[in-house]
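Risk register update: the risk of archive-format incompatibility is retired. Evidence:
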Amino acid sequence: MTTNFTPAVPVRTYERVVEQIENAITSGAVAPGDHLPSERELMVQFSVSRPTIREALRVLQSMGLVESKPGGRGGPLVLEPSPASLTRSFTTMVRLDSLSMRELVQFRLVLDSAACRLAATLHTPDQLAAMGSCVERMEAAVGADTAAFARADVDFHLAVWEASGNALLSMCGQAVAGAILQLITQQLKDAADSARIEADSAALDRGIFDAIAAGNSMEAGRRARQAIYDRYSSLLPAEDAPGLDALLG
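Archived output:
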């Protein structure tokens, strides 16, 4: 009998440190809001050098697990789960051509549709009121305050994702939305008729809200898909249109 082994891959010391700290966080042994030991204490506990600890903390910070503040009291802060690291990953993959903008927009289209369908069924009165308030803020800011409009638009989608009751859907939705906005911000700023774009966006979100308020999950999902299509399809190459059209039905 012949057994084929694969070559052993050396593991850097800092990777072992990352692995142990990550396991402590994901297992709940160290909770969000807790502080890790100081660099000096970590050096003693792991029996490694300061550069090794700093490299491990840099990796953990890039993963969105901890935050280190120069001069801060105590060791690095363990963070709550956040879509920020996912946003960075999606953005980087598009810039490195590992993902296309079409794929990001397709993913956003699917996520928003699912979130709106769930929100139409599962929302609480307080959540519905929060969504309605965001739409009213958007409508009031059209053509008058671009920054206020953008904040209200983001808040509306955050409220919808929260009302979906699905934390993973919410995190992925926020991450994809953030990545798309980072990649097309300049195109949006350069738009000739920003007031018209804002008015159209507010009308789309008003339609989504009305469907959610009516408890019509199918219509809420359909309007969400149409809203994403209308907002972003014109910013993509014409050859990408069939890949979006297929998801509108």
